Amino acid sequence: MKRQIILLMVIVISSFAQWQPTDTTNVGITGSIVTHGNTIFQYGSYQGYRIYRSTNNGTSWENISAALPSNFSNIYSFGGELFGIYFSNIYVSTNNGDSWTLRSSVTVPGGVIMGLTSNGSNLYAFSNRKSFFVSTNNGKNWNEIIINDPRNMGMVNFASGGGTHVAVFGNVGALISTNNGTTWVDKNPAAGAIAGLYSFNNIIFGFSFGGGIYKIGANDTGWIAVNKGIADNGLYQIPKSMYGNATTLYVGVYAVISYQTKIYSSINNGETWDTLSTTGLFLNNTTVTPWFLTANQSNVFVYCYGTKIHGVYSLPRTTSVTDVSETLPIEFSLAQNYPNPFNPTTVISYQLSANSNVTLKVYDVLGKEVATLVNEYQLIGKYSFHFSSINNNLASGIYFYRLQTENFSATKRMMLLK
Question: Between the CA atoms of 81, 289, 154 and 111, what dihedral angle is there, to the nearest 10 degrees?
């Protein structure tokens, strides 16, 4: 029997949408938020370390601090699991934060693990020294990569995507490697050194202090400005926090002159940006964390911190409500990409008949993975992904894309003709 449901039609975030405070909890100037599926977590230290969880888009929050084995400096969602960092220990929760177990530990002489990140396939832990660690089995085992550089410097951020590693060091900026960390080269935009990083769809985005947003493609060492739609074309704008959900990228940008933070979104991997409504949002956000912005399937969330105002604000991603009787998928399927052959972009569509962890990856004819398009928990429904050969620096030829869920897998062939 076919299943039917009344769905909300997702159109755009319009100028009439308004931010709403969902919580006024103060978790400090370093307070952070993260989504795990559709669950939201906020954590930080103010009059003691605390972590709160919401399973209903911020309508209510539960203090789950007692479940934590330690005061986590970074919480990260990857591969259907929730990870927490305490010094050089990596903890994991498989039950949405109800309990935590020690997954593994690494050794950082005189240092600690600063945070976790991924390229869609591997999990990375970066230290505040000159090393990072890579895991291919969800943090059970780690391989250390040391950046051989004689300078006295400490890493503050790291990202990997499309065969490129980028490490950011204080007072130095970005170092880039395209050979898995064997050699590194200093590379920063002329407008200002890279201070922050984020990897999305195998593209690494760099945050320049006062120069806006830049990106770097697959196996490349050159930064390209992507500030179309950002105020003043990125001049005197400081990107502070970025988060990608499905095919939409969000960024929080601090304006040096106005001292205000604006939120932008992009549906084309940063080529152009749209300004989200600021109605109802606390604009003088002074939080110093790179993790104050996140999103799930229905809302965008921002943690705000100020002298008198603090807490989590939300903005619906759905702004027009239409009663549409639409049949939910009754089976998993992967469609043939269109157009095919393609150059340079094509659309890959699939449908899920149940909620599941989902990966969508692209391989060359030798079976080498060349792109990870999706790696997240998704709800029942229909999805489309715009795949670009430019972002992944691909040559003409035959490629295969593979959809993998918990109970289904399928592979299709596509052709790139330049």
Answer: -50
